[in-house]
From TrEMBL:
Gene3D superfamilies: 3.40.50.2300, lambda repressor-like DNA-binding domains
InterPro entries, per the entry: HTH_LacI, LacI/GalR-like_sensor, Lambda_DNA-bd_dom_sf, Peripla_BP_I
Molecular function as annotated in GO: DNA-binding transcription factor activity; transcription cis-regulatory region binding
HTH lacI-type domain boundaries: 2-58
Key words of the record: DNA-binding, Transcription, Transcription regulation
Record-given protein name: LacI family transcriptional regulator
Keyword Cell cycle recorded: no
CDD domains per UniProt: HTH_LacI, PBP1_GalR
A Pfam entry, by short name: LacI
SMART domains in UniProt: HTH_LACI
């Protein structure tokens, strides 16, 4: 088991200096470079600050009074509350944990990435497992994984060495393009968002990759002017679609594939405000099948993602990992289904 002394020797400072940094003691100043080295050593060596966490590391915790029955949930709080996709996943997690007498604790990405709060957040709260939706650094994943089980949801964690509950985004988007091609569409555009911190990287986003692959398989041309990176903001989807229409109404795609229903609904509004018809002038297809998609005008064709089931399975998986029933980082891909509505019904000739 790693001790303060080990960290001190690793960094080349006194034990008291290490203690002050880890305890976030503000009474004596420690320069930032030394702090950074100490926190790096904490992660690399896998220091665990209290006996409760040590028991977790050693897999010795039994179902006794030492159990906290707390599971952490790392997600953007605004997103979890306002985005219907994430809100439904959250509900699946919460309902499943509650039935099994677990408590769900909300933790923000900032709390994990603030090194002065990291140990307190993970260890002192008594979190037994952690569910991840918001993206955190790989170094944090590796450190936390030494102490407690992790389960990732959504595309940030597909390629990480942790348990993941998700669906096949590439396959879903391929199915959408194939459906539109079967209806006679040849001029197809894309609306979505990128990945990484600024959401600029569209080319490595799985839904876009599926779109590109399906277009190439169908022998169809990709038109850069019909590809829109909204950075996952509805207002950007609306504005970009509006600008596309106003630049050249005579040269529009006959269909727009959208990486989420929210992006589709915003773009559809721009089409309607420009006195164009959906789906006669431009057909739309979204992803997620959020509740409001069936009440849009016209109702939005979309991909049904088992959002509640994703949350339920994530909760079930983290409970089984905490209880020692699962020890390997399982990867679970849940099925999707196309939902055809009026926004894409017209066949092209």
């Amino acid at each position: 088991m790693v001790r303060l002394k080990d960290i001190a020797e690793y960094v080349g400072v006194s034990i008291s200096t290490v203690s002050r940094v880890i305890q976030n003691d503000q009474t004596r100043n420690v320069n930032q470079e030394t702090k950074n080295k100490i926190w790096q050593a904490v992660k690399e060596l896998g220091y665990v600050p209290n006996q409760h966490a040590r028991n977790l590391v050693n897999n010795k915790q039994e179902k006794t009074n030492t159990r906290t029955m707390k599971i952490g949930w790392v997600a953007n709080p605004t997103q979890a509350e306002t985005n219907p996709y994430f809100a439904t996943i959250y509900r699946g997690i919460r309902d499943t944990l509650t039935v099994n007498d677990y408590t769900l604790i909300s933790i923000t990405k900032d709390e994990l990435e603030n090194e002065a709060l990291l140990l307190e957040t993970i260890h002192d709260l008594g979190i037994e497992g952690l569910l991840l939706i918001d993206k955190i650094d790989d170094s944090l994943i590796q450190y936390i994984q030494k102490t407690i089980p992790l389960v990732g949801l959504d595309f940030f964690y597909t390629d990480k060495n942790i348990a993941v509950i998700d669906y096949d985004r590439e396959a879903a988007m391929k199915a959408v393009v194939q459906q539109l091609v079967s209806q006679g569409h040849r001029d197809i555009g894309f609306i979505g968002g990128g990945i990484n911190g600024d959401y600029q990287d569209l080319h490595n986003e799985f839904r876009y990759k599926g779109f590109v692959a399906a277009m190439k398989e169908a022998g169809l041309e990709l038109h850069p002017e019909w590809i829109i990176n909204t950075k996952w903001k509805m207002e950007n989807s609306y504005e970009a679609m509006n600008q596309l229409i106003q630049r050249n109404t005579a040269n529009l795609p006959t269909a727009m594939v959208c990486a989420s229903d929210l992006m589709a609904l915003a773009a559809m509004r721009a089409v309607i405000e420009n006195k164009l018809n959906i789906p006669k002038d431009v057909a739309f297809f979204g992803v997620d099948n959020i509740e409001m998609s069936k009440y849009s005008s016209p109702p939005l064709s979309t991909v049904e993602i088992p959002k509640y089931e994703m949350g339920r399975m994530a909760a079930k998986t983290i409970m089984e990992m905490v209880e020692g029933k699962i020890t390997l980082p399982i990867k679970m891909s849940l099925p999707f289904e196309l939902v055809i509505r009026d926004s894409s019904l017209i066949k092209r000739t």
